[in-house]
Fold:
Amino acid sequence: MTETLLPLRFTCVWEGDSAGVAPEAFLSAVVRVTGLSTSASPTRSLSESLHRLSLYVPAAPPTTREQRAAWIRAMEPDLGSEGLAVAITTGEMAQHGPALVVLDGDSTLFTGEGIDLVAAHAGTQAEVAAITAAAMRGELDFAQSLRRRMGTLRGLPASVLDQVRQDYHFSPGAAQMVSDFHHRGVKVGVVSGGFRELVAPHATEIGLDFVKANSFEVANGQLTGNPEGDIVTDETKETCLRSWAAELEVDLGRCVAMGDGANDLKMVRAAGLGVAYLAKPALQAAADVRLSWPNLAVLSALTLPD
Structure:
């Protein structure tokens, strides 16, 4: 029986000139690690401050996700992993790029944790930040930890959320990333363990296609210390990825999911390509791609074809 051959795309991206990679070195690393024989040559491009090398192999033996991740880990020492990100995509993702990208909210699409900013107004920031950090490392159940954190905000005027929203900022490169994806017809969504009151207005501003987040319960103009409705958990994040893909009639193989914490593990594993963004160790180990510096535009550079 004839083996079905599939396309593969190898891409590395870096910022500035300090971590520059020569096309010949990139090709050598790919051939050494994979054992592939290819007559293709890497293409080089520059977008804003980002540099990219991309090697497209139109027909290669099928690979597993684990194999591609192992290749990346093996290539990184040759290329110098500091300030450089590497991705390997296959099939339709390699040919056409993703069709859906789903991002975590706090500490991924946005800098910092929204609830920590709210807690600063309640005088409980240190307590809340410690609980947040433990939850993101996977040491605490996320839903239980969120209820504990929200409990410290009981009685805070809801008007504080308007002030916090002014200090709740996109991560560097967010606008460029969304623009790049939308230009290619890629839908972009955010599913956040943070709060809709902070996330949704900014998501509208940047033109995101899907939004899911927690909500504060408010009574008599004050936060009750409880969530309104169900809490967004790791299961919720995976469910959103799958339901949005189904709505778009998109195969999960053409979906990208990116996050920073343990509650992003399930959606990162469910997507065709999972990305760890300045992530905690558990997610770093599980993700296909690791982005180690703050520039979200790297994600579109890594996943969109030339």
Remarks:
- The chain has a mean pLDDT of 92.
- The domain at 1-96 is CATH 3.30.70.260 (Alpha-Beta Plaits).
- DSSP finds 13 helices and twelve strands in the chain.
